[in-house]
Amino acid sequence: MLIVYLKVSGRSQLAPLTASDQVGNMVIGALVSTAIISPDVSILEAIILVFMWAGLQILVRFIKFRSSDAAEFFDGSPILLIENGVLQKDGFLKAQISILDFETHIHEKGVKSISEVKNAWLETSGVISLDKKGEKTQSNVIIYDGNIFDDTLEELEIDKEKLIDILKSKGYDYDKILCAELYNKVLIVYSEKGQDVIDIKEYFNI
After folding, report:
1. Domain 79-132 class?
2. Dihedral sign computed on CA atoms, order 96, 101, 107, 111
3. Class for the domain spanning 140-199
């Protein structure tokens, strides 16, 4: 039954990447355990429930793929914990993570002190990511499947309309871009044409 569920719902269930994937695994576990333990639930009923849940998971994943707003609704957005070496108290409160727990986590990653961390944030999967001082910062996806992530642009202090104009000047309509990520002060655009690198640091204070 579980093998069929994985075939139908996708391989992301093996290593959940988002909150909705994790919830999906917990629910399917509860359904299967109920079918095994409870004499009132037949195998056929359990199979029907599993397929119904798998169908719902596929529908949610499709909606998230088509809409960044829907993805944020279902999975939330990353929570900033440290920005430019400054602890973000509101971020820790929102993430419900104590400084001691955070310190333990970075020690497990080989970071000796909080002072070594430039930026840190809690991913939607529940994993803490970080940039160490002196290292290149990790990339930020700002466009996905033609959708611009307004919250990310706001955090990076990038004007949306100006970005759209820059993309147009380079021959790109943002709503036709598969993916665009900001990395090391350049914008890397992935489209059907291939991969293109646009230097945008002269336009924005990044």
Report:
1. alpha beta
2. positive
3. alpha beta
Dihedral of CA atoms 192, 197, 198, 201 in degrees, nearest 10, equals 140
How many other CB atoms are there within 10 angstroms of residue 190's CB atom?
A: 16
With a cut of 80, say whether residue 187 has pLDDT above it: yes
Residue 64 CB partners (closer than 8 Å, separation 6+): 20, 70, 71, 74, 75
Check residues 83 and 45 and name the one with the higher pLDDT: 83
Are 78 and 123 a contacting pair, CB within 8 Å?
yes
Tell me if 79-132 shares its fold with 140-199.
Answer: yes
Domain locations in the chain as residue ranges? 2-74, 79-132, 140-199
Asked whether 61 and 16 are in contact (CB, 8 A), the reply is no
pLDDT per residue over 86-100, tens digit each? 999 999 999 999 999
pTM of structure: 0.52
Query: Is residue 203 scored above 90 in pLDDT?
Result: no
Name the pLDDT band for 2 (thresholds 50, 70, 90): low
**How many C-beta neighbours within 10 Å does residue 199 have?**
9
